[in-house]
Amino acid sequence: MDFTFKELSTNDAKDIVLELYNITGTAAKLPGEIDANFKISVNGFPSYILKISPSDSDAKELDFQKAILQHLETKNNAILAPKIKADVKGNAISSITINKKVHHVRLLTYVEGRLWNTVHPKLNDLCFSLGEKAGNLTYLLQDFTHENATKKFDWDIAQSLWTKQYIYLFSDDKQNLVSYFITEFESFFADYKDLRKSVVHNDVNDNNCIVNNNILQPKVTAIIDFGDAVQTQIINDVAITCAYAIMDTEDPLETSLAIVKGYHSSFSLTEKELSFLYILIGMRLVISVTKAALNKTQHPDNSYLLVSEQPAWTLLEKWHKIAVDFAYFSFRNACGFIAHPNQTKFEQWAKDKSFSLKELFPTINKNKIHHIDLSVSSAFSGHQEEFNNLDALQFKIEQLQKEVPDTIISGGYLEPRALYTSPEYDTRGNYGKRSRVIHLGIDFWLPAYTPVHALFDGEVVIAVNDAGNKEYGGLVVLKHQQKDFIFYTLYGHNTIESALQHNVGDVVKKGKQVSVLANYPENGEWAPHLHFEIMLSLLEYTNDFPGVGYYHQIEVWKSICPDPNLLFKVAGLPQNLTDTSKDILSFRKQHLGKSLSLQYQQPLHIVKGANQYLIDNFGQKYLDTVNNVAHVGHENFNVVKTGQRQMALLNTNTRYLHENINTAAAALLTTLPKELSVIHFVNSGSEANELALRMVKACTGSSEIIASEHGYHGNTNATINISSYKFDSKGGTGKPKNTHIFPIPNAFRGKYTGKHTAEKYAEEVQFLIDDIERQNKKVGGFIIEPIISCGGQVELPVGFLKKTYQKIKKAGGLCISDEVQTGLGRVGKTFWGFQLHDVIPDIVTIGKPLGNGHPVAAVACTKEVATQFANGMEFFNTFGGNPVSCAIATAVLQEVQEKKLQENALKIGNFLKTELTKLAKEHLIIGDVRGQGLFLGFELVDAKLNPLPDKTAYLIDRMKFFGILMSVDGPDHNVIKIKPPITFTQQQAEEVIFYLKLVFKENFMTLV
Question: Cα angle vertex 218, ends 123, 243, to 5°?
């Protein structure tokens, strides 16, 4: 091939356009495999694409491409496609001589938009639109013919067996990979060659797809460059569209489904065509890697020819790991067909049959069941630690069995469970971390060594010891051949001996023993039970089969694995995966306070907490970086058990002697300076701050309170009155006359900015003191958080708090440190936030993190304050300081100290802050990173430091998409706060950073 013409400069292209088309413009080079391509701009706007072909180009081929564009132009803009611009002589295809060789020249209208490869992220809606547009194009070409449509062409999948002769170019492992797809393609070629054919685009790749300029709702608007168009099997076009678009995705199958669904919506695909699609996608990739290998030797300087080589290999390896049948069933489901083609046959067969549980378990002789709920929201399974205590769990099951002696305890089909903690159940998908949680069989909870018998004749296809934690142990799978379909039954959690007594190929007759239930640990570390599952396909498994599936794939899984109760038809098994979220939301809107807010436009239905995670009703786990109240982890086992034990003993008020309140107070006092020696227990942070205000009034005789702009201190009347975050916001009525607000001491975007602002902000406080005294009033108190939370995770300038405390105390006021969010080791360097500033307040308020979410809080104060507060009016709080709350508070403090969680907060917080600071250097949209320990924030601004609340909200929503919960704060709603349970791990912190990096690369997050 003559590549000399590829050396044409942009000035050459500009001259060619002027000479041939009488158009004055500028040129910019574009990539291309065969043609030299230039973008031509007129008056500064992209207007045309100039294509100069090699001198040896086939004139018939160029006429073929021209005819396609002219054909599409007759379709009245049914699809957006380039139009041909004739030259000054009226020719659709012009020519020019370069180095004494004639080259054909075409000028096409420029299609406005973005190339596919510049669009980030590529979500399912965009992929659907890609498939939809490609299918629409195929539909419009159904009545198109041309003499050059059928030709010898290496990039035609139907002709791809030429790749066989070049397998030697690859290493052994890659040869095996390529050979697999070639062999499979050859095996079905006789059936495949007779599929429907048409002229198709045949090259819907990154550089040929045009996407609109709508950043938030991108859609494919056009498909350009018909240089690879050919008449071939229509399904090849689907395969090619998928092959390019699913590169560089975590879950290529999931991405392909959106494309296939979109294609099918415009051009209906047949079930038979879909059966070939998986291998055809692989074959397109085989062509790509083979071409790349050849081009390395033939054209080593043409980098365009190698651009997709490594992504193609990576994808080929991922694609090979997907079971052919599972891909096929998924394609069927995406197109609206029943996922498994034999599902209806099985259901009809089962409808006419009836099997008794007595046949499955002859020694049990029962045919009724009692449903046991082990779903994610189940109270029976309890805490994960309890479920993993197999002795305790077995005891609970045995006790339940005594209550229902005539039944078999069972349940579980399509039940979302949070019981599978082994990493084998997790993967990283397009939507972040995914876990297999939907149970695909029925569990029958029976004593160990219960015999299990065959319901019908079957051939042994699997008989193994599936060893490992939360695996099957002894596993047997039988194959059952019916007249026109096959199904399988799976028997899990048996003794190894009973499973291995079978050999593959053995026949087990109806009524004969299949296996014997095992006890733990032999059965995979479970309480004794049979996992019974039906499968219509083995999906290439030979020594295992999934007992749980991913929720996002459940329509396919429940087609592959029908409900086992279709056989037994017993009453009492509920329908699972019923979403009640809309009902909950509807009731909430009607009967709960209208001022209650919900996070996210599509609220999460959270039913369980597990340390650093919140789990929804379908078992989806969300990494929680928001809920600081769950201080030592959601549903911390030691805290929960402590509360349960004390609740079973006594819960009453403080008018009786009880050791727990003393123990909790003593535990708190060990963390505080000796000056803060008196504790009052209450139920919440709001109550704590309310009590602190009462103390101020009792000690100083004054209600004049100085507080920070954008500060938040609670939801009672008195605390709202000192919370600028509330009274200066929507629904607020402005500050009361006895509240005095100074500018938030924000050195990044506050009244004073820079490194040395402490004195200036302290002077703002002095101005308020002076103003109060000018009114012949006395300063009552000063309240602030050591890091201002709702104001945007704002760190106080170094020295500000010390200077301010001195001024307040000189004026006779008391200093309150609101530690509701910053206390108890969260800031890492110190146990309390005020200790970061080398000050000792008169009063410290502590909130519900003290109880890990249980309603317990406290006020610590000096003896002087306590003495003056005890003025004869009794302080009584019915449940403040009750034995249950105090036991829980003590347990929380023990968790922090014994598990060194303050040290963990420092370590993980430092890592996050360092990584966020690095990220800020790469992405200038991150204006500031601040905070201490696991109480951090980062602020999004433009180049002029204007807040970017829309981009902040977008980031939060996208992180939820990846299974990570984050939250927005600050007066301009442009600060992302990070305040997870202080049990947060290094791995989880790395996960947060990993996905933040992805989101910051997305188009919407780019500063214009």
Answer: 50
